[in-house]
Amino acid sequence: MINEIDSESLQQRVASGEDLLLVDIRTPAEIAQGAIPEALRLPMHMIPLRMSELPKDRDLVLYCRSGARSYQACAYLMQQGYDRVINLRGGIIAWARHGYPIV
């Protein structure tokens, strides 16, 4: 089962300074339209090649535009032995709808 987090809960965790890593898995063109501050940019198709950059000892919060691709990416990482992956439900659309920061 994939763990999910909603925008409000994620904003609270970020604001409280929790040690988590945001991972934006969208394409560079999508990211150019705006991203969550301080997120690691790792396009979905690059995850298998750059997986070593992802720590296993921190919560990884993956997001895409709507939450569908990041859900699949979470499932993939769990198959690779990552047990601290979390999908941002609703993706950056839900994040922006709540008025949370985008750079």
List the keywords.
103 residues, 5-stranded parallel β-sheet, alpha/beta, Oxidized Rhodanese, domain 1, globular, 5 helices
What does this structure look like?
With 103 residues, this protein is of the alpha/beta class. The protein has a single domain, classed as Oxidized Rhodanese, domain 1. The chain contains 5 helices and 5 strands. It has a 5-stranded parallel beta sheet with strand order 1-5-4-2-3. Strand 2, helix 2 and strand 3 form a beta-alpha-beta unit. It starts with a strand and ends in a 6-residue tail after the last helix.
- Arithmetic mean pLDDT: 97
Name of the level-1 CATH class:
Alpha Beta
Q: Any idea what the CATH architecture is?
A: 3-Layer(aba) Sandwich
* Radius of gyration (Å): 12 Å
Strand content: 15-25%
> Can you count the helices?
5
- What is the number of domains? 1
Distance between the termini: 31 Å
Strand order of the largest sheet: 1-5-4-2-3
Output the CATH topology: Oxidized Rhodanese, domain 1
- The unreliable regions are none
Multimeric organization: single chain
- The percent of residues in helical segments reads 25-40%
Q: What would CATH call the homologous superfamily?
A: Rhodanese-like domain
The SSE string, one letter per element, is EHEHEHEHEH
In total, the number of strands is 5
Q: Major β-sheet, in short?
A: 5 strands, parallel
| Tertiary shape | globular
Content-based structural category: alpha/beta
